[in-house]
Design goal:
10 strands
Length: 124
């Protein structure tokens, strides 16, 4: 398998936008040899839609304690259904773009995340 990768920032894949629309949140559990080691989360995965990239999805991993524990995946789902979007801004977000078998795949990690307001987005 031929793998190429490019590293950039969130703005690099989001048309210089610093915020993204939160669409899902999941715990990261510790696995060794394909077996779960513990039920205690070691981090959190946030899936976001990128407004500066036609709302393409990106999953951002943050290791350690959940920076926004008061927001649940169920609340995110309800907010999306009600069109009351939850916007977030990541700290030190690094995005890796991979080309695997002709497909472009993005993954990301960040130091932290915080709630944000959409007023910071670019307007046409």
């Amino acid at each position: 398998m031929n793998t190429n990768k490019i590293e950039t920032t969130l703005g690099g894949v989001n048309n210089d936008e610093s915020i993204a629309l939160l669409t899902a949140k999941n715990e990261i559990l510790d696995y060794k040899d394909n077996k779960k080691v513990s039920d205690i989360p070691i981090g959190t995965k946030y899936t976001v839609a990128l407004p500066g990239n036609r709302f393409n999805l990106l999953t951002v991993k943050i290791m350690g304690a959940d920076p926004i524990p008061n927001i649940t995946d169920e609340q995110i789902s309800e907010a999306l259904s009600a069109h009351k979007f939850i916007w977030v801004r990541f700290t030190n977000c690094k995005v890796t773009i991979y080309k695997i078998g002709g497909d472009m795949v993005m993954s990301a990690s960040a130091k932290s995340v915080e709630l944000a307001k959409p007023e910071g987005t670019k307007q046409p």
